[in-house]
Design goal:
47% of the residues lie in helices and 6% in strands. The chain is mainly alpha-helical. Among the domains are: 54-75 and 86-119, no CATH class; 129-268, no CATH class; 457-599, no CATH class. Helix 6 packs antiparallel against helix 20 and helix 8 runs parallel beside helix 10 (254-265). The protein starts with a helix and ends in an 11-residue tail after the last helix. The relative contact order is 0.12. It comes from Gossypium arboreum (Tree cotton). It catalyses: alpha,alpha-trehalose + H2O = alpha-D-glucose + beta-D-glucose. GO terms for molecular function: alpha,alpha-trehalase activity. Pfam families: Trehalase.
Length: 600
């Protein structure tokens, strides 16, 4: 029954998109102010900050002492802010303050390890295994297009990884949340893996795509339930389910998750419960800290969005790293702005990349809050379209019309603000100096960032763009000539900076969005390119898995079968979104019986 529902809903969505075009011709023009969000105002002064909890502030002190005690070798600062307390905070702080210290403030390894062992449980002890309620070793109708027995066997092993990555919070987190930085989520989750023992926001979209291929609909719904819990509790979906993530979100894909689950299940009650939180999240992303106005060449105002974390201190999970990076700044205000840029870049999901730097050779020139990113605005356009579709599904026609108006306005912005005709790409837009002002900024061509990033092609993911065959063919040609297409997939950028969201790394989400957009097109050339990229990505995942016994967070797209590197932590395995994208690609494209899957 599920495949029939899936294809029926795809047809229904196509008809809905056609209605978007028809309705956009008849709806009255949208007012200057967005009726779905609070009035836009520019951020004044230092910007908002969500205060840290006393536990978190103390764990940062523990982290700093650990660095002094052990040194930098194999030091992971996240480990220390993930430690659960055994007893109350005041007792633990008192014991910590009594530790004997040398003149430079360090503690002996013996004394520090004795303290940690006495007052803390191990990092990761606050999550426990949760048996997925809907896992079966080989689901009925699983990946019907995969005919090669070798590939099918591997796909079933990837499918089985959902069991390995399934967790729920421990009873201690539920009954004594004050002892933990892990948040008391109500339902089981799928974690990314390795050091990431909590659920993450944007990772979850591709995890869910894989779960849907695995027919694990209840597990997918539980993830959305947890994200909505965070939204209801904190006012936005957090970067991840830890106390140190309350100051920022991540790329907003909650509506896309709800849409994909509905598309497979036709669960109208699920949509009804999800719709009010989706509208709440939309308002958050269109609040004063995230929204700015750009006036185009025709004097039309466009409300567009940026990343902006509510934080101006070192990120607790990387505090010791951030403090060292900020040491070049001489005054506190410069340091605070740099710390906000670090946290805002983490909110983007691309932490870190030359995409966000004014000077690609100087990490301290991060300026994420002064950039209107193409992909963020695509995610919000998709949110508008998803909410319009979901509202129509449950009979909320007034909401549908409001969000169609919003999507109509944003679609025009992509033509006048982000599109670059000469390059055949959509480009990030850099704000003028003094961006925090109440007046609209006037669009300037030189403010488009003309460096090539995979994000320049993400608008293809949206049906409003991939349904335009002439546009798709122009963008496909641009992608083919961009230098991003490599032996094992799409590179994130053309700059080898040592940062993980730069060359030569390729990431599952970027492969998936671009491939899915190209494959939905009516262009034969675009669909051929999509299939080729997907096959290269499947191969590199397969070969790396056979060599290492693991799925990886990122891959080196220059070399088939090699995982990626760079950034501020060692490469991780598991791995939620990589598993999800491989299963989604195999579901869409299959693998013929006689087709080889080695790198040659």
């Amino acid at each position: 029954m599920a495949p029939f529902l899936y294809h029926t809903n795809r047809k229904r969505h196509f008809l809905f998109l056609f209605s978007v075009f028809i309705l956009s011709q008849s709806l009255p023009p949208m007012a200057l102010a967005n009726p779905l969000s609070p009035p836009s105002s520019c951020t004044k002064g230092p910007g908002p900050v969500i205060p840290a909890t006393p536990l978190l502030s103390f764990l940062v002190r523990v982290q700093e002492t650990a660095l002094q005690t052990y040194g930098k070798s194999n030091f992971d600062p996240k480990h220390y802010v993930d430690l659960p307390l055994k007893s109350n905070l005041s007792t633990t702080v008192e014991a910590f303050d009594k530790l004997p210290k040398t003149e430079d403030g360090s503690v002996s390894v013996k004394d520090f390890e004795a303290f940690i062992g006495k007052y803390f449980n191990d990092a990761g002890d606050d999550v426990v295994y949760a048996e997925p309620v809907d896992f079966v070793p080989e689901p009925h109708g699983f990946l019907p297009k995969v005919e090669n027995p070798e590939v099918r066997g591997w796909a079933l092993e990837v499918h089985a990884l959902w069991k390995n990555l399934s967790r729920k919070v421990s009873s201690s987190v539920l009954h004594h949340p004050e002892l933990h930085t892990l948040l008391p989520l109500p339902r089981p989750v799928i974690i990314p893996g390795s050091r990431f023992t909590e659920v993450y926001y944007w990772d979850s979209y591709w995890v869910i795509r894989g779960l849907l291929a695995s027919k694990m609909y209840e597990t997918a719904k539980a993830i959305v339930t947890n994200l909505i819990f965070m939204l209801d509790t904190y006012g936005h979906v957090l970067n991840g389910a830890r106390a140190y993530y309350t100051n920022r979100s991540q790329p907003p894909l909650l509506s896309a998750m709800v849409y994909e689950i509905y598309n497979r299940t036709c669960d109208v009650e699920f949509v009804k419960k999800s719709l009010p939180p989706l509208i709440k999240e939309y308002r958050y992303w269109n609040s004063d800290i995230h929204e700015l106005i750009i006036r185009d060449a025709e004097q039309c105002n466009h409300f567009l969005n940026r990343y902006y974390a509510m934080w101006n201190k070192p990120r607790p999970e990387s505090s010791t790293i951030d403090e060292e990076l900020a040491s070049k700044f001489l005054n506190d205000s410069e340091k605070q702005q740099f710390y906000r840029e670090l946290a805002s870049t983490a909110e983007s999901g691309w932490d870190f990349s030359t995409r966000w730097m004014r000077n690609s050779s100087d990490f301290t020139t991060l300026s994420t809050t002064t950039i209107l990113p193409v992909d963020l605005n695509i995610f919000i356009l998709r949110m508008e379209l998803d909410i319009a579709f979901l509202a129509k599904t449950v009979g909320e026609n007034a909401i549908t019309e409001d969000f169609l108006r919003a999507s109509q306005k944003r679609r025009k912005a992509f033509s006048s603000i982000f599109w670059n005709e000469n390059m055949g790409q959509w480009l990030d837009y850099c704000l003028n100096n003094g961006a925090d002002c109440e007046e609209p900024q006037t669009w300037k061509a030189e403010n488009q960032n003309q460096k090539v990033f995979a994000s320049n092609f993400v608008p293809l993911w949206i049906d409003l763009f991939n349904s335009d065959i002439h546009l798709v063919e122009k963008v496909t040609k641009s992608l083919q000539n961009s230098g991003l297409l490599c032996a094992a997939g799409i590179a994130t950028s053309l700059t080898n900076s040592g940062q993980q969201w730069d060359f030569p790394n390729g990431w599952a989400p970027l492969q998936h969005m671009i491939v899915e957009g190209l494959s939905k097109s009516a262009s034969m050339e675009a669909r051929t390119v999509a299939k080729d990229i997907a096959e290269r990505w499947i191969k590199t995942n397969y070969v790396a898995y056979k060599k290492t016994g693991a799925m990886h967070e990122k891959y080196d797209v220059e070399k088939c079968g090699e995982f990626g590197g760079g950034g501020e932590y060692t490469p991780q395995t598991g791995f939620g979104w990589s598993n999800g994208v491989v299963l989604a690609f195999l579901e869409e494209f299959g693998w013929p019986k006689d087709k080889k899957i080695d790198c040659d």
